[in-house]
Write a structure and sequence with these properties.
Elements lengths: L1 E7 L3 E7 L3 E5 L4 H10 L3 E6 L5 H4 L2 H7 L4 E4 L9 E3 L4 E4 L4 E7 L8 E5 L2 E3 L4 E2 L2 E2 L7 H12 L6 E3 L5 H11 L4 H12 L8 E2 H7 L8 H11 L7 H13 L1
Parallel strand pairs: 3-4, 4-5, 5-6, 10-13
Antiparallel strand pairs: 1-2, 2-3, 7-8, 8-9, 9-10, 11-12, 13-14
The structure holds zinc ion and fe (iii) ion (FE).
The site of zinc ion has 4 residues, from loops.
Amino acid sequence: MRVTAIPAFRDNYVWALHDDRSAILVDPGEAAPILAWLDSHHLKPVAILVTHHHADHVGGIRELAARHDLPVYGPARESIPGRTHPLAGGETINIEALGLGFQVLATPGHTLGHLCYVGQGALFCGDTLFSCGCGRLFEGTPAQMHASLARIKALPGNTLVYCAHEYTLENIDFALELEPDNPALLLRFEEVRALRGKPSVPVSLSTELATNPFLRCEEALVVVAAAQHFGTPLQPGLEAFAAVRRWRDER
Ligand code: ZN
Ligand code: FE
């Protein structure tokens, strides 16, 4: 199985899992670049996986589904155009054309029905986790997002994280405010800068655990940095997470 990033809009990635004939598309936000890519690689789309209802993740579904007969998996509790397979999290789905299975994780926070898909050592996490960042809390609470990120943290460290946006450099800029001396973060900064705009994802979960402040809210230095910023003592964990998220929002 190969995974290819199809760029969409300004900074979205539509992930395509494929062999030489068939492709699964994750979060097809706009149809045109996907149809062009499928065409040039002579691939047939066989399934769509949707993480959440935002337009930049679902905008291309109708056109793809009009041209191809394919299942559309997505959160049951959100309005997803063309959805054929509603999911709540906890299911396993099988895409037979490619012989691939995925575990479905409920990860509310960015939206209330947000799902992640885990399989073949990969995590397709939509707008829940970004490299060195996490999604804004448009619908959920800090407690929901903190619990969702804990679910992701429990996956094997060698899991490759496929985020839906290229936000890494601006996220690192913020992460360095919290942990200016974190060697793993400084190394990641150098690596991403050297990419000069090429995709910085996928990234291993172990790298994220060492660099992403939203996954590091139990770490003393992160807790202290947030407490100093807000001038108030903070408990490690959820309380620190909520403060770091608010700091990022206000920045
Ligand atoms: Zn979103
Ligand atoms: Fe998005």
